[in-house]
Amino acid sequence: QVHLVESGGGSVQAGGSLRLSCVVSGNTFKGACMGWVRQVPGKERESVAAIDSDDDTTYADSVKGRFTVSKENAKNTLYLQMNNLKTEGTAMYYCALDPASYGISSGGNCYNGFHDWGQGTQVTVYS
Q: Which residues contact 59 (CB under 8 A, 6 or more apart)?
């Protein structure tokens, strides 16, 4: 069973930076497509960024040039570096993966969607 644990959320002033981390248990990390999804209460989930087993990456248009997704296989850890944060970035951020990776697709998604999820970490951006 895959277990994902996010950390690194918090409150930051607009224009600031945060780095989210997600530690993944189990043996699926290296071959998986992994990503970050955010959600505001009352709104649909929004895919933010994803990275596949070949380290190819994809981003939502709203975060391109400001967010960077990366992973460290030796630590089974996924990261999301968020720079120049905007108030509309306030959301719960979830780490997610597809263990049977078919690669990435546009807009920050894994081609086959996300199948395993963490509990989320809250990011609040204030003006």
A: 48, 49, 67, 69, 107, 108
3-state DSSP: the chain helix, strand, coil percent, rounded to 5?
5, 50, 45
Residues 6+ apart with CB under 8 A from 104: 33, 50, 51, 52, 56, 57, 58, 110, 111
Q: Could you report the per-residue pLDDT of 82-122, keeping only the tens digit for each?
A: 999 999 999 999 999 999 878 999 999 999 999 999 999 99
The neighbour count for residue 86, using CB atoms within 10 Å, is 14
Question: Average pLDDT in the 43-53 region?
Answer: 96
pLDDT band (50, 70, 90) for residue 44 = very high
**Are the C-beta atoms of 20 and 6 separated by less than 8 Å?**
yes
DSSP state letters, 51-106: E-TT--EEE-TTTTTTEEEEEEGGGTEEEEEE-S--GGG-EEEEEEEESS---EET
Could you tell me the two tokens for 20? Answer: 């989210």
